[in-house]
Amino acid sequence: MREPVRDTRESPRFELRFSLTQGTFTVAPDLDISARAVALFGPSGSGKTSILEAVAGLRTPQEGRIAVRERVLFDSETHTNVAVRERHLGYVPQDLLLFPHLDVRQNITYAPPRRSDLDVPNLTHLLGLTPLMDRKVSGLSGGERQRVALARALHSGPDVLLLDEPLAAVDLARRRLILETLVTIRDDLGVPLIYVTHSPDEARAVADYAIVLEEGRVVAAGPPVDVLP
Amino acid sequence: MTRHWAAVLVFVAAAAACASAQRQEVLVSAAASLADVMTQVARAYESRSGVRVTVNTGASNTLARQIIAGASVDVFISADETQMDSVRGEIVPGTRVDFLSNQLAIAVAADRPRTMRTARDLTDPAIKRIAMGDPAAVPAGVYAKAYLEKLGIWSQISARVVPSASVRVALAAVENGAADVAIVYKTDLASARRATLALAIPVSEGPRIVYPAAILRGGRHRDAAMRFLSWLRDAEASALFQAAGFIPLGRK
Amino acid sequence: MEREILDIAIFTTIAALAATIVMLPPGIALAWVLARHRFRGKAVVETLASLPLVMPPVATGLLLLWLVGRRGPVGRMLEPFGLEIVFTPVAVVLAMAIMGLPLLVRTARAGFEQVTRRYEQMAETLGARPWRVFTTITLPLASRNILAGALLGFTRALGEFGATIVVAGSIPGRTRTLAVGIYTYTETGQDARAAVLLVISVALAFGAALVANRLAHVD
Fold first, then answer.
1. Which residue in C114, C117, C124, C125 has the most chain A C-beta atoms within 10 A of its own C-beta, making it the best mutation to test that interface?
2. Residue C115: which of A97, A96, A138, A110 has the closest Cα?
3. Chain A residues inside the 8 Å CB shell of C114
4. Cα A110 to Cα B47: distance, rounded to the nearest angstrom
5. ipTM > 0.85, yes or no
6. pLDDT range class, residue B22, cuts 50, 70, 90
7. Is C121 in contact with A58 (Cβ distance < 8 A)?
């Protein structure tokens, strides 16, 4: 079990310099930054999810380079394109995609564990999932499903967590709790985040770097306090 | 003690293996119409000689195709000469014989019986539909058409003929009223419950119906097959065929 | 007499079960390939897989006979070992499996197409290799359809006649199935026996349909 580098105080490097065209518009971020959490901010349809999917390997850019924490995931010049299953990323899409035929425990433990501190006891404690472990996922509330999806993504000991509008299905009362949990994950567990959202408050709460997108174009990039409305 | 049992087991197994290896078997492909009588015949032969006779039945053209494809059939009994001709390359020379014959018969529904004096009565305009095996494919139909042509009435009645997929279908048509008469084999009427005989075409007048039999080269038990075919033409088997309504052609 | 009828019923059921088991691996594999992949000659493969469905069964039987008969390409290879397929229960199972396969493939393929690729992708992001994705995600999510397809194949196998009688013949105690038995008894005027076999066939088909319904409604 390879224990990945954990630098809870250092900010890992994100290299997102690529061009991805789908249909009518092109999304072309151009960043080489160090941050503990990057927010992809913009209205729907601005290309935020596409960037996330490119990092996850679910979409392939036409050209460019993607590297996370010094690990090259994609490089059109050297013809590098790491397979999805080898990217060691935790992906939590907007619709969560919890496996409907498996219960909570089986969902969480689907990926083999890579970090001893991200094992089932720790994760269920962190996310308050202990009473839910043997339940079928179909009977859970929005907030519960979100936490299960997070636990599942974390169980694989990912190098970075990719989150697409994680609070969309969570009721207002619990949002703060989840945001706090994400900050804990970012700082105490040392898992950096790429966080897609259209809410400036969320971006400010979680990220130390934000990219503002409009119709695929990066119109601003920098610390959230500077670039967000 | 265990060693004794083991020895007995081995001996029994070996004996059984030997027995099954020596046990003779003859595979016969016979026309569908012979299925019932061949079962009785096979049983009789087995109790007499200890040789198992396995009977495969079907439409004669299907049986012929199986033989041509190399199926290891020992004896072939066909419902007509055409099918036997088609496998002539597979026949052991000198073993083909004219085995059985049959009689054409005209059948009517049992609840509307009538007797006919001759086949020419078929030209009666009151008879609207005549069911018979398809003269293009079914042996009984081929024979029937040949006979009616010989009588010179085929062209008159052919418009009223309903060709059927098999003789059984023709009989069923008459039984449920879809046809007024059916031309079948006399043997088919033996088991029909709602159809009766209107006229049996005398053998001397009717077409020469022949069920040929032959030993095939592809079979695996030639000697046993020869003995079986020979027995089939002897008195005991002939009696069984006769009881079923067939006409054994005997040895010439 | 009754013994023979019972034997025919038992033999047909066992052969149909065997045929269903035989058709499952190639059927599932073919269904998955057709559902997920695009490749040159895919239309040809699809047509071949549907052939037993659209060809007259007797024609399929003749094709099989040519293939596995002693003179044919496959039969020729088995001959030196003393193995013959024609006129054996193996031929019965073979005919049943070939006739049922297209139905299984069609139904299973629809099942695979319904399993959204996104679940498979999610499994990939969690590090699962293709075989693991297939067995832990794709197959379970398509299992209802696959089962329905297997049941369809089984029912088809139960009633299979045209190809069976050509390549397996009608040998009592060895290759005579319910359908072939009904035909043979009818052809020789043994209507009472044929009727009994018919009733058994209908009862079995009913049973299979009931099980299929149960499976469709569970959940």
1. C125
2. A97
3. none
4. 67
5. yes
6. very low
7. yes
